[in-house]
Amino acid sequence: MRNTAIFLCAISCLALAPRAGADDTPGRIYGRITTTDGDVLEGLIRWDRNEASWVDVLNGSKVIYTDASRSGGGRRIEIFGYTVYESTGDDTYSRTSGIRFGSIQSLERAGNEKAILILQSGEEVELINGSTDIGNDVRDVIIEDAERGRVELQWRDIKRVDLFQAPAPIDSAFGERLFGTVITRDGMEFTGFVCWDVDEVLTADILDGNDEEGERHKIPFSEIASIRRNSSSSSLVRLIDGEELVLRGTNDVNSSNSGILVLDPELGQIELDWDAFEELILDSPDTAPNYASFARIGRIAGTVFTRSGDRHEGLIRWDDDETHTWEFLDGELNDIQFDIEFSKIRSIDRLSSREAEVVLLDGRRFDLRGSNDVDSDNDGIFVIDEKGNETRIDWQDFERAVFDKP
User: Fold this and answer.
1) DSSP 3-state assignment of 276?
2) Number of domains in the chain
3) In angstroms, rounded to a whole number, what is the distance separating the alpha carbons of residues 360 and 399?
4) 330 and 241 co-located in one domain
5) Is the pTM of this model over 0.90?
6) Residues 255 and 193 grouped into a single domain
7) Would 323 be classed as within a structural domain?
């Protein structure tokens, strides 16, 4: 639900204190924000309302190249002596991308719609808008500073963000990151950190709806045990104390829901809409990835086999785009959108011109389609061998890729 009540968060002057023996809230984004006014704030961070843990994804468009970098200057296209296109050399070519917050070391605002990221690996990545995570469309960046309490910032207020592990466990005014298991209508199960209605991600966030008598309920997620699809227009909400409510009338509990995300540390992210959703069972994670667990990122590498029996080993550029293990392979299965981090993929097998089987390191297998990462719209699989020779394999010639473990 949108605009859910920054309500409970009127605790803006809450002082944050360490909790003895507690985990690091667990897995929450922590860091230091330097503002354009020169203020320095440090604490737990909630980004664009719906990212709050290291496994959450910062979305944007990755800059691949500009005309100037690709050709050494501007381009001109002529037909029959007439100029039909001319660039100055500053045109930017980009692809939709995303990266987990845990892979990021720093983010520097580089204008109204651009950010420069330095990753834990030292790699520099330029992201431009393409979502509400980068640029002036960012809804809010909230940091819980120990001295100033909750501080809300807009994109224009941010100069730089430095991310690192929290020095000690911390209580948050927003509670802990939502975690649980989502069951789909065809029986698939996905367990991980949950984002409800592409908005609610923390236990203090509110689910609201009207009961059968028309009374409005506003329920913190900390009080909810499960949410089950009751119909296209209602949900059965079971509370921790055993009470059950059938709620309707808001996009938290009906088909107007904007989407349910599961951030699975061993996969990446899946998103499903109301038609594919059956039930969410909320729980607490046994463990949560900490910042250090995202340090091992690097180039995609492995062996690519062709349908004619050739074998090519080396660095891989997938779909003429993805080059690093922090990047995502996209596809669909049963109306579920998959964004699978390359670091979690063991192999990819071509099943047809429209489909591929993706096998994860943990053994799970998904037959994906609906994306140029896994069908004949793929822009090419490039392999650079140890001598620097580059080979392009088109989808119709591709058979299989087996990836080196990061």
Assistant:
1) helix
2) 3
3) 17
4) no
5) no
6) yes
7) yes
